[in-house]
Known about the structure:
By secondary structure, the chain is an alpha+beta fold. The chain has ten helices and nine strands. The strands form three sheets. Strands 6, 7, 8 and 9 form a four-stranded antiparallel β-sheet that branches. Strands 3-2-5 form a three-stranded antiparallel β-sheet, with helices on one face. A hairpin with a 3-residue loop joins strand 2 (about 75-80) and strand 3 (about 85-90). The protein is elongated and about 210 Å long.
Amino acid sequence: MLFLKYLLMITGSGLLAGAAGILAYDLYLMLGKRPLDGEEPRPLRWKQARKLTALAAGPLLAGMSIAIVPAGNAAVRVSQFSGASKDTLYPGVHFVLPLVQHVETYSVRDSIYATLTPPLKVQTKEGLEVGLAMSVRYRLDATKLPYIYTNLPQPVEQEMVPPVVATVMRELAPNYQVRELFSTKRDEIRRLAAERIAQKLGADGIVVKEVMLRDINLPEQFAKSLEGVLLKEQESERLTVELDVKQKMVRAAELESDAAKVRQIKEAEGAAAVTVLQAKAQSDAMLYTLPLKEKQIQQTRLEAEARKEATVKNAEALAQAKVIDGKAELEKRKYSTEAEADRIRKVAAADGDRMRLEADALKGNPLLIQKIIAEKLSDKVQIMMVPNDGKFFFANDVLKGGLTPVREP
Length: 409
């Protein structure tokens, strides 16, 4: 929409400029060139100029009828006949009657009024002049813009806010001393100033959000004297603090001494109570210990008797076992002797039978003697060359002896 407005305004202005150009060109030709004899002068082209002017009126009036209120602003529609309207125009596109109405725009964003350089001069209760550096944060109430436009001096930011702030501070400062102004009552002064400034400006449609008392400029002589007073007060406070610390240290020492005494008494009472309790515990323990000791002695006696009886029984059992072992050993030896005698008899009988059989065999076959001797001496006999007659050879005698017939018994 803003582009359309500017386009219409540019178009209308172009048409007006064209009409003015045509007339200026014709006037230039008329004044700069003399007509020849019998030649009529060139007339001005009023008809074309009027047409262009008529054509320019439409875009110009259409562009002038469009009013645009930017973001963060509000406006009032003002008529040449009835004055300001009662309605507030908020950000956006609005339409007005060209050449009859126009729009007055105001910023409704938060604004800051500051009295930094130079600071606001006020007088205190002592009559001293003090400089105050203040900041007031405010904004215009959009619903009261028609009232602000109609009744308040313009611009409001310069004609209303500074006088009200200065008046309020000059009314409050004489009620306080310099020292209260910058130390003890500073927050109170700021709060009262904020209330009064908001009350006065709020009635005219100016909303005060915050009042800040930033700095206080003291007179030079007062600042020096105040510095000395502050130093003395600080020294006095330091001495007071040191005295309090020493008194507290003395009191702490007294309390520690009393606590030590009480602790010793409590420890002695505790030790005595422990001794009494230990003695009582020992006495009570003896009441239970003596029967227990008697039971232990009786148990020990019974255990000794049981061990003695067990030892006697073990000895008797051992003697009986030895007797039984002796009898078993005698029976064993007896049976062993009988078995050995029976074995010897059987071996002797077997040997007799064997010898008898061997004698019968040898009797039937005498050459068996040589075979038997050869078998007995086979691992010890070596091959030798001997004479045929067998003289001086022991085997000849052996063999001869072996061939001697055996007589029957």
